[in-house]
Amino acid sequence: MKTNAIRIHQPGGPEVMVWEEVDLAVPAAGQVLLRHTAVGLNYIDVYHRSGLYPAPLPFTPGLEGAGVVEAVGDDVTDLKVGDRVAYANPPLGAYAEVRLMPADRLVKLPDAIDERTAAAMMLQGMTAQYLLRRTYRVQAGDTILIHAAAGGVGLLVCQWARHLGATVIGTVGSPEKAELAKAHGCDHPILYKSEDFVAKVREITNGEGVPVVYDSVGKDTFLKSLDCLRPLGMMVSFGQSSGKVEPLDTGLLAAKGSLFLTRPSLMAYTAKRSDMLASAGELFDVVEKGVVNIGINQTYALKDAPQAHRDLEGRKTTGSTLLLP
């Protein structure tokens, strides 16, 4: 069968993404044919498009989507035609109307969660889950720092951490984003362009520092983030929207208080199907209970993905963004 998809034939700017007709085979053993109803936009898509994270050319980008199963291959026993499913993991290929997907990488959606909400929350939500519950397990009484607090992951972390009993400090780029973060549970939004966030964190924590920093910004914030940590604190570098972090002399971690440093990825935390299902299950639970609200703040037609990337890189988006086939 034929379908339409965004294709990238060479790495580069948003303009390298083209809307093309592609051929699809029937599902092989262990695969399903999935018709997308919504596709999630994530910063990792920019890394693939630009070549920062190289992918074999040509390719269809995207790691997150939701939709309805249209056909199943041999050996697929836990999914059937008509099931509503979602995913947030490789293989690449979400920017398509219809795609083939390994059945063991899909999660069935509960009745209470619609497909648009699922596509908006799987990657960012499971990221928030592993950050808060596994990488550094946030406890009641902790004070944490999250950069890009008004972004997709940031807004989820603010809500979830507040529910866990933490005090949340977050950096944002504008007064409007500060208000948004505050409305989602950020106790102390810091305008990083006009305020020294290290000084503010020290002030808020009475000079003690925080036990954990969650940093998806990278180059612009990394070294200053280390100065926000208390002794034995954990630096969680999980993205690099401002550019790659420079090579680090590990002696710096000792000098600043025997700090821990990790560079986690969702793909490692959900590589085992059991871990993926547990992560998704915990996410579904907090969303169904209303603890975490998913803000779909922008939608674009799937064929308009280049404009969506321009707005994402221009820091014009907040919360979650969907591409609609």
UniProtKB/TrEMBL annotation:
The superkingdom listed in its UniProt entry is: Bacteria
Q: What is one term from the GO cellular component aspect held by the record?
A: cytosol
Q: Could you tell me which InterPro entries the record lists for this protein? A: ADH-like_C (IPR013149), ADH-like_N (IPR013154), ER (IPR020843), GroES-like_sf (IPR011032), NAD(P)-bd_dom_sf (IPR036291), QOR-like (IPR047618), Quin_OxRdtase/zeta-crystal_CS (IPR002364)
Task: Cite the Enoyl reductase (ER) domain residue spans from the record.
Answer: 12-323
Q: Which Gene3D superfamilies match?
A: Medium-chain alcohol dehydrogenases, catalytic domain (3.90.180.10), NAD(P)-binding Rossmann-like Domain (3.40.50.720)
UniProt entry tagged with the keyword NADP: yes
The reply on keyword Oxidoreductase is yes
A GO molecular-function descriptor: mRNA 3'-UTR AU-rich region binding
Q: Which UniProt keywords apply?
A: NADP, Oxidoreductase
SMART domains hit by this protein: PKS_ER
Name-wise, this protein is NADPH:quinone reductase and related Zn-dependent oxidoreductase
The species is: Paramagnetospirillum magneticum (strain ATCC 700264 / AMB-1) (Magnetospirillum magneticum)
